[in-house]
Design goal:
mainly alpha, 4 helices
Length: about 80
Amino acid sequence: MPWSLAGPVVAMFASWLLLDQRPNGAEAGGGVLLMGGALVALRPQVSRPQGARSASWASRISGVWPWISRNMASRASR
């Protein structure tokens, strides 16, 4: 269960609040990484119809970074 990863993070921040043991940057970063991993593990899976192909990497990011997709398209046409 991915939420079992929250135990050490909750304990770390509880010790900060109750015992004034402030976590250093590496410990706080590790806590963020653990919680991010739990959220990624719990995200809903996208189901595709059988036989459907996923879009290419360039077409998936075209709305986010248009300049990258234009650059990749110009390289592909060479």
